[in-house]
Amino acid sequence: MRKIITSLAVVAFAATGFSQSTTVTQSNDPNSVSANGSVACGNNAGGYTSDNYYSRAFKLSNYGVTGDFTVTEVRFGVQTASTTLPVTINLYNQTSGTYPAGTKSLLKSFTKTISPADVGTVVSATTNQVVPAGATLVTEFFHDGQDEVQVFYFGTNAAGQTAPSYLKSEGCGIMNPIATGTGALNGFASAQWVISVVGTTGMGTVEVLNSQDVKIYPNPVRETLNFGVSKGLSVDSFQIIDASGKVVKSSDARSKSSVDVSSMAKGVYILKAKLSDGKVHVQKIVKE
After folding, report:
1. Domains annotated on the chain, with CATH
2. Please, what is the Cα angle at 70 between 67 and 76, to 5 degrees?
3. Which of 39, 115, 234, 249 has the most CB atoms in a 10 Å sphere around its CB?
4. What is the mean pLDDT of each run of 10 residues along the chain (288 residues)?
5. Rounded to whole angstroms, how far apart are CA atoms 214 and 207?
6. CA gap 253, 273 in Å, rounded
7. What predicted TM-score, i.e. pTM, was given to this entire model?
């Protein structure tokens, strides 16, 4: 995970040229692929999988991404690839409603070629696409092996997920994406797509690491985290971000001076507090 800062130095980044690498995922284990557990529409007798659209939706603000997000890499698991075959990757911005309902706008479509050598691994596809601030990013992966008699099953594992995986296949009468483990896919709760999106954030944002203008105590903390700010400043909003990049606590309440963290799991977190000076002040938190 490249988002978490393990050694905080007293550094102020200028508003020009600062960017931070962030990995967004809903897979509890984004690096492994099981030998089974996936699902796809296909024809066993014909020896192919047909039109299948595998997708996830990421509300970027849930992962501490509040500005523009430049996608540089998409990673996904491969359970089965019978031969060398293309997988089309579509990136969308959800423009209204909540996925899979509502509407979405295509940002970019590109192709990753995979082969039997990729079976059981997580592959990487590089790209460069800006996703606007405040967006819900929908990642969709498409393959149709009917014409070329190909078999492709998307990678899964049993480690769990923090949000649903979706499948659409007109060949099987699934005209709109539905969550695996529900409806027509009720028997396939194990199909939890291994997907991660890597990108950069923070362009045009001033972040002050190990800020002396924000005091947090106690640290390490068990129940209540208190924080104060230098004279003349006030807290506009704050976020507490875990090791996966997910926002676990947040508030837009001005001048808030404490937060209950008793329900948070033990570990290292990042506090990002936006102050009245317009800067985001960053501190590391250890939860006991």
Report:
1. 11-15+205-287 (2.60.40.3080), 20-201 (2.60.120)
2. 120
3. 39
4. 29 38 91 97 94 97 84 97 98 96 96 98 95 93 96 97 97 96 96 95 60 87 90 83 80 75 92 81 89
5. 12
6. 11
7. 0.69
